[in-house]
Amino acid sequence: MSYDRLNERMANGLLADRTAIITGASSGIGRATALTLAQAGAAVVIQARRKYRLDELASEISDQGGKVLTVRGDAGIQADIDFLLESTLAWKEGGCKYDIVVVNAGHGLAGGILSSDESRWQETYHINVLGAAYIMRRAGQYMAQRKSGDIIAIGSVVGRNISPFSGFYGSSKFAVAGLAEALRREICALGVRVSLVMPGIVLSEFQEVAGYNEENFFNTVDQFGKLIEPQDIAEGIYWLLTLPPHVNVNEIMIRPTGQNYP
Fold first, then answer.
1. pLDDT (0 to 100) of residue 223
2. Strands (DSSP E) along 27-148, which ranges?
């Protein structure tokens, strides 16, 4: 990010007095989103399993003058999600509340129904679907009582346009899309906004962890030209959060310009 954009965001402080929870914040989209929201004035609560990565991110946010709370945990475990929310409500610097939840944590998995690693199916659904559903439920209940708030779920283009190269993972993101829309319909009349962000191909650690390599990924995407980076998705999330309260963009899909499919 350019210094001009950073300085402008910090000067505007459009998210001042708001507290944001970001799961899966140790890398990629989660990390970029935490930095972006903190720069806009939000107090941020960051969760991930890798404590050293959280500590590094917290130091960066603090050095820029931001407010940050780290909560180590697994976004697929209900007890860890409960601890995350309880810790946020007890955090005085964040106002003992939360206004934004970015449901970002998840696992990728290369391959279709026939070729993906079956031993990782349960793990993928445990965090991508069940963990996401649980934090959306808990946050939705809290925000419905307050009659305000934003829940942003990170889906995927393959959760709308299934790909044989990531068919099982894509099915989990189809579920996330359904959860987000179901929740929106339940609580929109109470002043709570729910949005689904569907990234296209984003260059991050995601590919390596998911099992992608030159043969099954990078050779295919060379034709798309310049790929997007986590910061590009963070900018989209920031835009959603700075819309007037009566405006809820329910879905956005953010692709590299050259990505024709999925």
1. 82
2. 43-48, 68-72, 100-103
